[in-house]
Amino acid sequence: MAGEPQDDCLFCKIVAGRIPATVVKETETTVAFRDINPQAPTHVLVIPKVHYADAAELAAAEPSVTADLLRHAGEVATEEKLESYRLVFNTGSGAGQTVFHAHLHLLGGRGMHWPPG
Ligand code: AMP
Ligand code: ZN
User: Fold this and answer.
1) Strands (E), 37-91
2) In a domain, 39, yes or no
3) Which ligand lies nearest to the CA atom of residue 51 in the structure?
4) Ligand 2 centre from 91 Cα, in Å?
5) What is the pTM of this model?
6) Is residue 26 part of a domain?
């Protein structure tokens, strides 16, 4: 059921501490940890502790947790001393989503191109 931990979900396992991650900051509702395959000098994933497949499902069901996610990403960016950074929700496999537990990418520490690839 949406919102409940999923046995086969990588990020639910990280939330539960069943898979190790380099956690940079945790709140009551969210966890931020370093991406295992960083695409920028700072590449942190900020995830809700509750399980939803993507950002739109999360926002529809838990708007306050969605706001927590954005606030938490901003706090991590400040702690990482990033003047500029990019926040990304890949949504759907065609857009590059590979883990179907909503997550916000925080990328920074290098120049960013627009439009993104
Ligand atoms: P996406 O492609 O938007 O679904 O993002 C999933 C991200 O999760 C990718 O950037 C992966 O590098 C990252 N990732 C996968 N497994 C792990 C892991 N065990 N710890 C940290 N990041 C991971
Ligand atoms: Zn999950």
Assistant:
1) 42-48, 85-88
2) yes
3) 2
4) 15
5) 0.98
6) yes
